[in-house]
Amino acid sequence: MTVRDPASAEQPEASSGGASPEPPRRRIPVPSFTAMGYRDFRFYWVSTATLFVDQGMANVALAWLMLELTDSVAWVALAVAVRGLPLFFLTIPAGVLADRMDRRLLLMVTQVIAATSAIVFAILVATDLATAPLALIYATILGSSTAVGLPTRQAIIPMLVPREHLLNAVVTGSMARTSSQLIGPALAGVLIDLWGVEASFAVQAAFIVVSTLTLIPMRRETMRIVEQEDRPSFSIRGDVVEAWRFLRANVPLLVIIGLMVNTGLFMIGPNQALVPVIVKDELDGGSGALGLMFTAMAFGTLSTSLFLTSLGGMKNKGGFFAMALIGGSICFIGIALSPVIWLAMLFFYFWGAFGGFFVSMSQSLLQSHTPQEVMGRVMSVNALSSQGTMPLGALLAGALASLLDVQTAVLIQAFICAAIAMSALLFIPRFRRLS
Question: Which superfamily is assigned to 37-214 in CATH?
Fold first, then answer.
C-alpha cells in the first residue's frame, strides 16, 4: 500500500525558509495553538466547533420536545436510548468506510443527511405535525450521523498536521468540542423560550450546514489514504479482522482501548446515571445546581486543554494517561461523599481537568501510533469502547444504587476503575512508557 505520511502535511503559513531558531524556554506554560497554523486544520476546527454546538442544542431541544408531546420522562429516556443505539451497529462499519474513501466526503454526506432531517423536522414542529414516533425517527437519524461521523472526524486529524504537533491538534480540537457543548444547550434554551422548540431545530440545521460547508475548502489530496489501485477487495469482516490483528500486535494500544472500556463502564456511565441523584438527594440541589456542576467540569477540561497546548512534547504519555484515570476516580468518590454543594463543585472541576487529560492522551497516543490505512477502524473501536459501554455502565450503576445506595455504588465502581488503571500502570511497562 502506498500510505500518505501525516508528516507531509503542509507547513504553517507563518513559517519561513531556513532553519528556525529554537524558541526560548518559558518558565510559565503559555497556551500555544500550533495546529491552527495549518490551513486545513483551521477549516476542520471550525467545522467541529459548529457541529458540536448543534449537538449540544439537540440534546436540549429533543428532550424538551418529547416532554411537550408526551409529558413523560419515559419517552425522554427512550429518545436518548434510540439516539445512542446506532453507535452499536454503525460505528465499526463507519470505520471501515473511513479507511476506504475520502473521509471529508463521508463526513459531508452524513452531515447533509442530518441537516436535511433537521430542516424537515423543524417544519413538522412548526406546523404541529410532529409526533413522538416521528421524534424517535429523527433521533435515530441524528444518532446514525453521529455514529458514522465520530470515528471519521477523529481519523482525519493525523492527516492535517505532522506527528510532532498531533497532541496540540487533538487538544485544540477537544477545546472546540468542549466550548461548543457549553454554548449549545444555553443557546437552545434561549431559542425555545423566545420562539419555541421549532426555532432550535431550525438553527441546529443552520449549524450543520455551516459545518458541512467548512469542509469543502479542505484540500482533497490531504484526505487520500491509499492509492486506488492498491486497495484490497472490499470486505467488512476482512477489514475488521485486519484492524484486530493490528491492535493485537500492538499491546500498548490494546491497553488504551481496554482502559476506555473501563472508563465507559465504571466512570462515564455511572456519571450519567448517579450524579443527578447525588445533586438532588444528597446535596439538596436543583436543576440549576446540576447545570453548574457540569459547567465546572467543562471549565476543568478547558483548563487542562490550555495547559496541554503549551507543551511541545511529553514522555511516558501512557503513564500519565493511567494516572489521570486514577485521579478522576478519586474525584468521583469525592463528589459522592461531599457534604456541601461547593465542595462537590470543586471536585467536579478537577474531575473535568483529569478527564481532559485522559481524553487528550488517549486520542493522541492512538492516532500517533496507528497507520493511516487502519486509522478509521481503530478510531471506531475507540469510540465504541468508550461511548458504547456508557449505557451498560449506567445500568450497572443504577442496579448497584438500588441494591445498596448511591454513595456505595460510586465507591465500588470508582475503586474498580482506579484498580484497573493502576494495574496497567504497574504491570505493563510498554504501555506506561508509550509516548
Answer: MFS general substrate transporter like domains (1.20.1250.20)
The span from the CA of 379 to the CA of 363, in Å, is 9
All three cell numbers of 83: 439516539
DSSP line for 342-395: HHHHHHHHHHHHHHHHHHHHHHHHHHHTS-HHHHHHHHHHHHHHHHTTHHHHHH
User: Is the pTM above the cut of 0.70?
Assistant: yes
DSSP 114-150: HHHHHHHHHHHHHTT---HHHHHHHHHHHHHHHHHHH
Domain ranges of the chain: 37-214, 235-435
Q: How far apart are CA 132 and CA 118, in angstroms?
A: 15
The torsion defined by the Cα of 221, 179, 280 and 415, in degrees rounded to 10, comes to 60
Handedness of CA 172, 109, 214, 158 (dihedral sign): positive
Cα separation of 57 and 55, whole Å? Answer: 5
Rounded distance, CA 376 to CA 6, Å? 14
pLDDT tens digit sequence for 256-296: 999 999 998 898 878 877 877 788 788 887 756 776 777 78
Determine the CATH number of domain 235-435. Answer: 1.20.1250.20
If phi > 0 it is left, if psi is from -120 to 50 it is alpha, else beta; for residue 19 that is beta
For the chain, list residues with pLDDT below 70.
1-32, 73-74, 77, 181, 220-235, 287-288, 291, 309-314
Distance (Å) of CA 1 to CA 5, 278, 368:
12, 53, 19
DSSP letter for each residue of 3-54:
BPPGGGSPPPTT--SSPPPPPPP-SS-----GGGGSHHHHHHHHHHHHHHHH
